Amino acid sequence: MRVGVLAAQGAFREHIIALRACGVDASEVRKAEQLDGIDALVLPGGESTAIARLLQDFGMFDKVRALGEAGLPIFGTCAGMVLLAKEIERSGQPRLGLMDITVRRNAFGRQVESFEADLDIPVLGKEPLRGVFIRAPYVTSAGPGVRVLATLDDKIVLVEQGKFLAAAFHPELTDDLRLHQYFLAKI
Amino acid sequence: MVEKGTWTVKKGLAEMLKGGVIMDVTTPEQARIAEEAGACAVMALERVPADIRAAGGVARMADPTVILRIMDAVTIPVMAKCRIGHFVEAQILEALGVDYIDESEVLTPADEHHHINKHPFKVPFVCGARNLGEALRRIAEGAAMLRTKGEPGTGNVVEAVRHMRLVMDEIRRLTVTPPEELVAVAKEMGAPYELVKQVAEEGRLPVVNFAAGGIATPADAALMMQLGADGIFVGSGIFKSADPAKRARAIVAATTHYNDPQVLAEVSRDLGEPMPGLEIAAIAPHERMQERGW
Fold first, then answer.
1. What is the dihedral of CA B244, B208, B184, B84, to 10 degrees?
2. Which positions in chain A touch B8 (Cβ < 8 Å)?
3. Cα–Cα distance between A104 and A7 in angstroms, integer?
4. Among all residues of chain B, which has the CA nearest to that of A173?
5. What average pLDDT score do residues B135-161 get?
6. Average pLDDT over residues B125-132
7. Does A45 touch chain B (CB under 8 A)?
8. A48-57 vs B244-256: helix crossing angle, rounded to 10
């Protein structure tokens, strides 16, 4: 099983470490041809505008979108969630638009408002997962096909839609592998 | 329980900036150009280092209005500089809501012995370092991100290369140093033993380390990345060049594709004049910014 991690910019190294700890082959994806033959794709945290610029300049947007529409499992964290969203509040920035969600960027505030909190995620079992939120987005509305997996103070922070999974926080910054394992089960 | 300003959160933002380019900007227009070009953050300044160098005198924190206007202009993180040891400038920057504070040798130091105790702040700090001892002292004070000092405002990458090579070399040597020698090494470096031991065991710095100080071309950025930098700061190199938007975009691409000479060749074409460079030997020793900090 081979999982690609988009390595345009951001915390791709941490995702690769987490995926390898789950026992799968994980590799960096910087160019369109590196998308060939992967069984799943991770869109890491970083700056969504910077990542989108690089996806555009290296002709990857349409290919990732086409692979997603053809059923490739995709997991987006933070900036990755923003890229997966159909709607981004007050922004015309480029996106993949694969998930029927509206997100608000930097929704909890600037860096001084960044935080950690325990999240109840029923699909992962009783033990809470430590969520690290860094200038994080959240989902302000989700379409009928979208399943909400976790909320924090009524704000939607984890969603799935078929083969797509999106988190507002950074599971790759903790040692807890449950969310990565949950994603890998989609392959 | 919700916890703000934790070490994980401070260090975490630096992790998100990795593989990216942080650009010095002095106006909202420049900030928008940087964001559009794919910068992962901007550094809000009144003057870029080349102009600070030219102006001479005491260089201080920027006027808050300059910083706030830049914060309003972009959605990416905004950093700002305070003087070494000037913890009140840092308090002001935190109150403004900047996303990262650079306790920077580009400004005139306010304290000749002590850097800021960065632990009590909720906002994270980045600091410059020329060698591993300096890097670990800054981490001990609470820096959640490091960068090489290089020689700012010169467009000359030689000092950044020297500092990156030295840090990487010292890390490599620590990994083969026997445990009983680490106490003496720590003493020699002037760095806390616990951090020296951690680096020896893990073979890398406990925080993200960017390259800064003299980067002016896509090739410079890729060089620093190949030497082991986690990302790039470009100060004067973009907005002192002939075509800032194009050069900014090229440096962003070169930082991601640093190991791909085909891409580097492509993005290096037709960028117009880079910023004028300065030979390090032409700068009087007391005017070298890298000597500031302890």
1. 50
2. 116, 132, 173-174
3. 23
4. B12
5. 97
6. 98
7. yes
8. 90
Task: List, for residues B240-267, the tens digit of each pLDDT value.
Answer: 999 999 999 999 999 999 999 999 999 9
**Rounded distance between C-alpha atoms, residue A17 and residue B148, angstroms:** 26
What per-residue confidence (pLDDT) applies to B1?
A: 82
Distance CA B285, CA A47 (A): 38
Q: Is A2-184 a domain of CATH 3.40.50.880?
A: yes
**What is d(CA A102, CA A42) in angstroms, rounded to the nearest whole number?**
20
The verdict on A30 touching B (C-beta cutoff 8 Å) is yes
Which of A98, A103, A111, A89 minimizes the C-alpha distance to A64?
A: A98
Instruction: Using a CB–CB cutoff of 8 Å, tell me whether A13 touches chain B.
Output: yes
- Residue spans per domain, chain A: 2-184
- Tell me whether B33 touches chain A (CB under 8 Å): no
- The predicted model gives B126-130 an average pLDDT of 98
Is the ipTM higher than 0.95? The answer is yes
CA-based nearest residue to A160, from A185, A130, A133: A185
Cβ-defined contact of A53 to B36 (cutoff 8 Å):
yes
What is the three-class DSSP state of B145? strand
In Å, how far is B24's CA from the nearest CA of chain A?
16
pLDDT reported for residue B258: 98
Q: Taking a contact as any Cβ pair under 8 Å apart, which residues of chain B between 90 and 109 contact chain A?
A: 94, 97-100
What's the rounded mean pLDDT across residues A5-21?
97
pLDDT > 70: what percent of chain B? 100
Residue A34 — pLDDT band, cuts 50, 70, 90? very high
Q: Quick one: pLDDT at residue A87?
A: 98
Chain B residues close to A134, C-beta within 8 Å? 9, 12-13, 16
Pick the catalytic residue from B10, B81, B118, B149: B81
Partner-chain contact A46 B40, CB within 8 Å: yes
- Say whether residue B202 is in contact with chain A using an 8 A CB cutoff: no
Cβ separation of B1 and A117 shorter than 8 Å? yes
A137 touches chain B (CB under 8 A): no
Between chains, do A9 and B76 touch, taking CB under 8 Å as contact?
Answer: no
Percent of chain A with pLDDT over 70: 100
